[in-house]
Amino acid sequence: MSEDRKVPALPNPKPRARTNRKLLAFLFFFFITVLVILFFQSPLSRVSKIEVVGNEMLASETIGQAAQVAPGDRFFMISSAAVESRLAALPIVKAVQVTKRFPGVIHITIQEHPKVAFQMGADGSQEAVLADGAVVKMTANNVPLDKPILSGWADSDPNKLALCQALGEIPASSLADISEIKPDPSESYPDKIKLYTRSQFEVYTTIAYLPDKIDNLPAYIASLQEDHINNGVIKMLEVDNHAPFEPNADAKNDANSQSAKGSAPSPTPNKDAGKPSGKPTSTPKSSTKQTAKE
Question: Given this structure, which CATH class describes domain 117-243?
Fold first, then answer.
C-alpha cells in the first residue's frame, strides 16, 4: 500500500462567517425598524411650529388654514410644493416660499401684492384694493390705513380699475396726503374724480391726469399755505387753479330764511292795519268848552 493511503484525509471545516453576517444583518434591520416605528410615534415626527413672515393684511391663522397645515401633523408627510401651490391661489399672495426645518418647523415666507387703496365692505369690514382691481378682505388686525379710501365706487365701474392701475404707478409718498377718492364724472370728463386731502383741500382731476398732476400737488398746497390759505378747492385739469369753498346749500337756505323773517312785518300788525279801532276816541275837554261858547 502506498503511503498516501495510510493517512486518512481530514474533512475541511465549513465556514461560519456567512451565517454570522446574516444574523447580524437581521438584527441590525430589526432594531432599525423598531427605532423608525418609535420615531414616527414620537413628537419629533410631528409639526411643532408654523412660522409665517412677510404677511401684513392676512392673519397668520388664515395662512395656516389655507396651507392646510397645523401643529401635530406628520412632518415628513407634508410637501413644500403642495403648500406653496395652495397659498399661491390666494389673490393677495404674489409669491410664497415654504421650507421645512427639523425638528417640526414649517417656515412660510409670504410676499403680498401691493395694496393701492382701501374700501369698506357691505358688512362694514375693511377691504384692501390691489393694483389689478381685486378686493381682498383683510383678516389681520391693526392694519394702518396708509392708503386712500375709495368710496362711492361700483365694483363693475371700469373707471375703478383704471384708477387702481394708476394708483399702482404712483409713489406712496405722493399719496400720503390723500385720504379719500370719490367718482365725480361729468360730460366733459367722464373719468373725473374728487380727492380729499388731510390738509383740508378738495382736489378735482381726472384719472388720466392723476399720475402727472399728483406729483405737483404737495408743492401746490405748500405754496398756498405760505400765502396763509389752508383750505379750498383745487382744480387740476388743463389748468391748475384754487378757489375758496362755496357755502353749503343748507347754509344758504338758512341765511335766506333768516333774512326773510327779519325784513317782513309781524303778522299781528298786518291784521290790525287799516281796520277801525273798536274804542271811541275821546275829545279833549278844552275843545268841548270852546265849541259850546261859539
Answer: alpha beta
